[in-house]
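Internal tracking record. Fields below are filled automatically when a chain is submitted to the structure queue. Please do not edit lines marked as system-generated. If the sequence contains nonstandard residues, flag them in the REMARKS field before resubmitting.
Queue: standard
Priority: normal
Entity type: single polypeptide chain
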Amino acid sequence: MTRTPMKLCGHTMGTPHLDAFQAIDFFARVGLDAIELICDPYFHCSITHQAAPSLRKEVRSQAAAAGITVGCLTPYGKDFAVTDARRREGAVATMKRYVELAAELECPNIRVLAGHEVPEAECSDYLPRLMESLRTLGDVAQDAGVNLVIENHMDSMAITARQTVEVVKAVNHPAVGILYDQPNLMVCKAEPFEEALPLQAPYVRHVHVKDYVLVHGRKVATVLGTGLVPWPQILPLLYGAGYTGFLTLEYEMRWFPTEIPSPEVGFVEGARYLRRLLAGLGRE
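SYSTEM-GENERATED OUTPUT FOLLOWS
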């Protein structure tokens, strides 16, 4: 019997020309199950912790009316391990407000960046502060029914799969897991998927799906299924590990506005490609 529990989510990184409400309607028309909302006051297709109660209610209502859910919020704060206590406390306070926002939107996940990148030899100096911040936030998130998902991400303390697992294990909180992003690991020349996914699988609660090519050694985003990321091999491993969460189509129009097809093309083709791969999972 075919079993395809993973659901498709659209990232507003791919819709910089729309506002949040237009993106909800667009993703619903594409046939996606959810939306991942960027949280950045300098980005048009966004929602922030400063959103008025009426705006929050409208986002939740419009998503429900469109038949999709808010699958993840994506803030950009990183000061969770800095030595400056005021900056650190400010980052924690802001993230608490995003937890409140997520709960109001009935959103299960918040993307977290694991602090700023530091030299590997200095990680042990910064890790206790990162642990303290994330444990504090974990308690708040758990009470709200929200997951904090640490993304494999460049310029953070979770550049590799091993580092990400080390952070999650050190925090040791049921509300803190991993956002698996194999393309980021590839760009950072970290672990291949055969190593990264089994290492992280017990902690993965959200997944970013995108693709890219190299042009004169430079990463350039591309439509899913036309680049270097081996999703036909990765998705069966995710399926075999029992993953049942969202697959967010992270179409990087925000960073490559002139180098990739329009979102109307990229999301449609990407969703079609993913559905084809998902349809083959679990078949004997």
